Amino acid sequence: MPESYDLTVIGAGPGGYVAAIRAAQLGMNVCIIEKDKPGGICLNWGCIPTKALLESAHLLEKLHSAKEYGINLSDPKPDFAAIIRRSRNVAEGMASGVEFLLNKNKITRKKGTAVFKDPNTIWLPDSSKEEITSKYFILATGARARELPDLPFDSHTVLSSKTAMIQDKIPESLLIVGAGAIGVEFADFYSTMGTKVTLVEMMDQILPVEDKEISTFLEKSFVKRGIRVLTGVGVSDPKIVNGKVKVLLKGKNLPEAVESFEAEKILVSIGLVPNTDSMHLEEIGIFLQKGFVKTDTKYKTSVPHIYAIGDCNGPPLLAHVASMEGIKAVEAISIHAGNPHHLSYIPIDYNAIPGCTYCHPEVASIGFTEKKQLTWVIRSAWVNFHLLPAGEPKPWEIPEVLQK
After folding, report:
1. CB of 182 within 8 A of CB of 269?
2. What's the CA gap between 78 and 60, in Å, rounded?
3. Are 146 and 160 in contact (CB under 8 A)?
4. pTM for the full model?
5. Which of 8, 61, 168, 308 lies at a C-alpha separation of 20 to 30 Å from 289?
6. CB-based contact 105:271 (threshold 8 Å)
7. Other CB atoms closer than 10 Å to residue 27's CB: what's the count?
8. How far, in Å, CA of 335 to CA of 329, rounded?
């Protein structure tokens, strides 16, 4: 007989494990299914370990300027293997913490990939083969890195954000395609390690979701540090030749319309693909749009007892958003099931979500930026405030600060 639960959560990332814990707190009998370590991409291969890498890079930069602080040091050099090892240890420690929380809340854990047999039943074909039925399901399957056409990831020359953080040596040169948060953060890290970095973005600015002058501010900082930044430039005809990557760069901002370019490695950070393509979702009646699960304002899918949260239901693709959506989805389920805890449903205000890119200088925004405001009929005024003349940045030797 299949095991049966009040709620089964598929995916133990920042949305899934938070949803499972909230459901257990509300008295539900909960099962969570994860094919890898708990914590998802953010904790194991994204937000957390990349911040550990960037902190090592930031410290190295500080050590290079130690004399400005009155400290004499010989030439500091990175121990790349130790930097990678520290990053992995940080992630593994956090994953252990999530395991502890799941066990503490008496949540049943299953390892494997879930596939729907019918709207009320899933099975785990790649592990135990067991079947599970549930009154409610939450899809929290996340997303994965998108590949360049005709250039699949190979972990050595063609890197995803995951494999970029576990390389065994510092590459001499690195082409980064895509200058969103992931591309910008890795450009910062590898440049500080000593790699010759070229950052390519097909839009007209790096960090395309940020306001133009913020992106320009960061670009100038990167260029000063020796990072080549190319905006309005696309990549075509990628190939691996003698262990290196060769591409054609095309764009109006190049000295010539087309440039042949070679690098030791390429990091592709051109967006994410939702992990919804192997679960038989459409076969059981769940509507997808470009692979993302369509939901209503309470995260309910087109199948009333199945909900979807986090990256698999579309932007904004942020870990803290997934966590809050997990809480809200569980509370919506509890209310739907008779509201025994007398909950009131308060929707998330998606206009007040903070975002941060942890490069140096860091970039953060919250609420209505000018770029977001342009999509609304709102009268507004904007002021840029350079904090360099103020006293606060000086003790830290921060070269320039821009606040908008």
Report:
1. yes
2. 7
3. no
4. 0.92
5. 8
6. no
7. 11
8. 10
For residues 207 and 194, state if they share a domain: yes
Q: Where are the alpha helices (DSSP H) in 166-205?
A: 181-193
Residue 265, token pair as written in the block: 């490695």
CATH classification at residue 26: 3.50.50.60
Q: How does pLDDT run across 324-376, given as a tens digit for each residue? A: 999 999 999 999 999 999 999 999 999 889 999 999 999 998 877 776 665 55
- Is the same domain home to 309 and 360? no
What domain count does the chain have?
3
Task: Give the contacts of 358 (CB within 8 A, at least 6 positions apart).
Answer: 50, 51, 54, 185
Task: Say if 152 falls within a structural domain.
Answer: no
- Whole-number average pLDDT of the chain: 92
Does residue 149 sit within a domain? no
pLDDT at 69: 84
Amino acid at 68: E
Q: Give the closest residue to 281 by CA, choosing from 311, 313, 318, 310.
A: 313
Task: For residues 165 and 240, state if they share a domain.
Answer: yes
CB 230 within 8 A of CB 199: yes
- Other beta carbons within 10 angstroms of residue 166's beta carbon come to 14
